Amino acid sequence: MLRLPKALRSVRVRLLVIAVLPMLVLLPILLGSSVLRWSSKVDAILLNKVTGDLTIADQYLGRLIETSGERVDAVARSVDLLRALEGDDATAYLERQRERLGLDFLRVVHSSDWPVVQAALSGEWHSAIDVFDAQTLRAMSPDMSTRAEIPLVPTRGAVPTDRTVETRGMVIHSAAPLILPDGAPAALVGGMLLNHNLDFIDTINALVYRSESLPEGSQGTATLFLDDVRISTNVRLFENVRALGTRVSAEVRAEVLGEEQIWLDRAFVVNDWYISAYEPILDSFGAPVGMLYVGFLETPFSMAKRNSIITLAVAFVLIALASVPVFLRWAGRIFRPLESMTRTIDRVENGDLGARNALVETDGEIAQVARHFDGLLDRLEQRDRELRDWGETLEHRVAERTQELQEAHWQLEETTERLILSEKLAAVGEITASVAHEINNPVAVIQGNLDLARSNLGAAGAPAAEEFRLIDDQVYRIGVIVSKLLHFARPEDYSGVDQSVDPGEVVRDCLVLTRHQVEASGIRSSLETGSRSLVRISRTELQQVVVNLILNAVHAMPGGGTLRVLTEEDGPEVVLTVQDTGSGIEPDTLARIFDPFFTTKHTQGTGLGLSISRQIVSRAGGTITAHSTPGEGSRLIVRLPIEENALMRDPDIMSQDHLKQAPALGQNGAKWAPPDQDEGTEWLSAH
Q1: Model pLDDT, residue 189
Q2: pLDDT tens string 19-35
Q3: d(CA 382, CA 624)
Q4: Which strands sit side by side in the sheet containing 105-109, from one edge to the other?
Q5: Percent of the chain scoring above 70 in pLDDT
Q6: I need a surface site. Which of 163, 251, 486, 515 has the fewest CB within 10 A?
Q7: In terms of Cα–Cα distance, which of 663, 292, 247, 653 is closest to 476?
Q8: What distance in Å separates the CA atoms of residue 561 and residue 525, rounded to the nearest whole number?
Q9: Which secondary structure element, helix H or strand E, spans residue 130, and what is its range?
Q10: Which contiguous run of DSSP H or E holds residue 481?
């Protein structure tokens, strides 16, 4: 659970937070929501304004189209045109009327595919916006195609295009019915090119954005688009260069020209953001061919909103900074008794039961609570003294009873151990007598007959020499088992600590004796003899200890591993270590491995090996300890005292008789040799 810092756990801080929270949290939320609502209202007002501006521009363009049609119809109905058509000056008359009306072309047409002309041929004048290609413009007037050309300017956000110049022209196309002198129907067709028509767009801008209709810093703009290309605009590309040839953004083009919808939103126009309104312009066929745009610069309005928000925020911060100290000072006297009680509680928790509030003020509900609290502390202190007295008495009585129980428990354990040991020794005595009678005699018969067979056969028994040796080994193992029982039952009869032996020599013999078990388990064994001193112990007993340790290591590595046996000198002792890489021993089991009859190999052992080994080593004045890591292996260490005044023995001067007495190894077995002069490591392995 998250624990607050001590300062935040103060009563003063918590009450101040409760008092100031409405002003510091609720008021900012209220102000923020009001600002957001005000900002959305301002945006709505701006959109309403640009909508009205677009309406004015659309009405002006519509009126211009209608006026053009009315003027062409007036000329078509005039008597002067009929007279000119009857005479020879019809062309000159039409040119004069074109210049007077401000048109770019005025001519008589007998037939056409344009809906405007077809309406006139049907008897009604009509006027609309149409787009003519360069060839059509050139046919109507030689210089119209040149005046219509607008180079395209690369524009950020526009739809990609391969075109470099706009050659089409947007024209106010008007036609009125005309009856020729010969009575044939015709149409008087006139038109005004809107490409580069800056007077037209400036007039719209002047009508929509009159002086002082926008705040200082803002700027109103109007644009006429042919498709998505600006053909007439007062938007500036540079200071005095109009943005003719620039294109509208892809987003606006898709909504206005693609979906024929009116755009009312902010939009990026050439090089800045504007509050914009776009509407599609339809030609006489009803297809969208361009757009009419009006808008004004967004930056002044954005700055005004930002400045208003900053002003409100600064005012709120100043008010908060001025009012919070007043609140703190005003609340100081209210919090003082609470803070005193908090300090008193802390002192009591730390063990000072004599701490009190001792307030000077006598008025106020909190002061009364503090005085009641002091009274409770007085009663608490008295109860604490009583409980301490009772606790000391109880502890003294419990200590007495505990000591009595411990003494009784120790006596019971000692008696139980003696009883168990007596029962075990009695059982072992019976087993020993039975073994001596039932096993030793058959073993002696087997050994005698084996020696007799070997003697009678002589050289003829050479092919069975290995089998004879194996029988000798097994008879020896039976003798070892019987010897273990006898050693455990009557250890004083087998002490034999009157011999001086070389531990390294004994270890070599033991590795030879256990070769078959090591090979059968696929174990790689190594011997390191680093000691030259003698120890006083029976050679047979030391062999028994080492063989037992080696066989235990072999049993711990049923799947193979590494067996390491080494002897070394450590001050006044010879240290013999048997180390394996087996499964290891759990800590609970490790504490009991030297107990008599304790075994984890229920069908393979009697549980006497390590117990007898410890008895043998103890009688020789040494110690045996075990260390193990589960999953990594075990290490058993035997320490024997070095015999004083004993001569050092050189293993290189071992008698050849001893070598002859060692059992011969098979052809696939490991070969044994005396260690080299550099005291290196011997490896005995079947691999």
Answers
A1: 94
A2: 666 666 777 788 788 87
A3: 61
A4: 105-109, 185-193, 169-179, 126-132
A5: 80
A6: 163
A7: 663
A8: 9
A9: strand 126-132
A10: helix 465-489
Answer yes or no: is pLDDT of 680 > 90: no
Closest CA to 338 of 677, 684, 12: 12
Contact indicator for 258, 50 with CB cutoff of 8 Å: no
DSSP 54-97: HHHHHHHHHHHHHHHHHHHHHHHH-HHHHHHHHSS-HHHHHHHH
pTM (2 d.p.): 0.48
The Cα 31–Cα 313 span in angstroms is 9
Domains for the chain: give ranges and CATH numbers: 45-305 (no CATH), 490-685 (3.30.565.10)
Q: Confidence class of residue 625 from pLDDT cuts 50, 70 and 90?
A: very high
CA dihedral (626, 630, 632, 636) in degrees, to 10, reads 10
- Comparing 86 with 333, the larger pLDDT belongs to 86
Q: Looking at this protein, which amino acid is placed at residue 402?
A: T
Burial of 450 (0-12, 13-18, 19+ CB in 10 A): middle
| CA dihedral sign of residues 282, 283, 287, 293 | negative
Q: Which residue has the higher pLDDT, 118 or 307?
A: 118
| Amino acid letter, residue 441 | N
